[in-house]
C-alpha cells in the first residue's frame, strides 16, 4: 500500500513539474496549431492572469497555473 501511495505521489509531482516547465508562449503556439488544424479562422488567444476577467473560453493554463490562455472568436 505504501508503494502505491509513493508511486501516486511521484506521478503527481512529475505531472506538475511538466506543467510548470512549459512557457505560456510555447503552450499558446501548440493550442493555435491545433485550432488552425481544425480549420478555424478569426480567433485570438490571449494570456491573462488566472482569475482575471476575460470574456472568452479558458483553453489552457501555464506558469504553474498562475496564467490562463483564453480563446475568443471574432
UniProtKB/TrEMBL annotation:
UniProt entry keywords in alphabetical sequence: Signal
**Source organism, top-level taxon:** Bacteria
Annotated InterPro entries: DUF1161
What does UniProt give as the signal peptide span?
1-19
- Family matches, as Pfam families: DUF1161
What this protein is called in its record is DUF1161 domain-containing protein
Amino acid at each position: 500500500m505504501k508503494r502505491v501511495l509513493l508511486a501516486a505521489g511521484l506521478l503527481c509531482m512529475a505531472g506538475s513539474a511538466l506543467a510548470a516547465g512549459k512557457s505560456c508562449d510555447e503552450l499558446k503556439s501548440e493550442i493555435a496549431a491545433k485550432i488552425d488544424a481544425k480549420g478555424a479562422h478569426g480567433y485570438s488567444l490571449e494570456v491573462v492572469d488566472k482569475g482575471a476577467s476575460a470574456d472568452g473560453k479558458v483553453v489552457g493554463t501555464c506558469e504553474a497555473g498562475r496564467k490562463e490562455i483564453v480563446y475568443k472568436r471574432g
